[in-house]
């Protein structure tokens, strides 16, 4: 691996959510703050007791003032006077974190309404950390609370995904990702120029299943579209680890 390639890997690790999660875990591991609430006990009544009337804000659908941000709009004092008058006691933020992907060293835009998260940082197109803090203070001033968004079980093609493609350390374990032996590459589809993946056809999935690479076709295909996405498996071009 060249020095430039090592620098790229280091940068990707620094951008990754797994790295950020490990750093944050150090704040809780072995600390009493980790054990303040019983696990596996759902407590929906606690949330409704804290705030019984909520406003759900989907950031991508909010029209802001010219040159304003979504978080500035949500933290506007006039808005909160109106929300308070109708009894709103809390705001549930939609997805606010940076989403989309990475191509080389460039960030690419979201293709899933900011649900394809790639970072724990606020999406700069939606606002800043300071504006989020200002929003929480404004809510508190009106006896209301803010609950942040959670997007489990999937990501965009950000740093974590690119490191997984490179089979770097334990990043592949974040995804349903399998390395195909070179002698079996002819079984995979051609990748069109400019694309970073190609969906597998059902027969191709069956062949890889028979070769014990994958479990095979799943019971249903999310976002199925004939000729575009017919299975839940795709192949990448050759990626050097």
3D structure, described in words:
- By secondary structure, the protein is α/β, with parallel strands linked by helices.
- It folds into two domains: about 10-20 and about 45-175, Transcription Regulator spoIIAA; about 180-235, no CATH class.
- About 30% of the residues lie in helices and about 10% in strands.
- The protein has eight helices and nine strands.
- The chain has helices at about 5-15, 15-25, 45-50, 70-75, 75-85, 130-140, 160-165, 200-210, and strands at about 55, 90-95, 95-100, 100-105, 105-110, 115-120, 145, 200, 235.
- The strands form four sheets. It has a three-stranded parallel sheet with strand order 1-2-7, covered by helices on one side.
- The longest helix has 13 residues, at about 5-15.
- The radius of gyration is 22 Å and the shape is elongated.
Keyphrases for this structure?
single chain; 241 residues; alpha/beta; Transcription Regulator spoIIAA; 2 domains; two-stranded antiparallel sheet; 8 helices; 9 strands; 12% strand
Give the structure's gist in a few sentences.
The protein has 241 residues and is an alpha/beta fold. Helices cover 30% and strands 12% of the residues.
CATH topology of the largest domain: Transcription Regulator spoIIAA
CATH class of the largest domain, anyone? Alpha Beta
Number of strands: 9
Round the Cα radius of gyration to an integer and report it.
22 Å
- Series of secondary-structure elements, N-terminal to C-terminal: HHHEHHEEEEEHEHEHE
Number of domains: 2
Instruction: Pick out the low-confidence regions.
Output: none
Q: What summary fits the major beta sheet?
A: 3 strands, parallel
CATH architecture field of the largest domain: 2-Layer Sandwich
Content-based structural category: alpha/beta
| Major beta sheet, strand line-up | 1-2-7
Strand content: 5-15%
Report the total helices: 8
> Termini separation (Å)?
9 Å
Shape: elongated
Helix content: 25-40%
What number is the mean pLDDT? Answer: 93
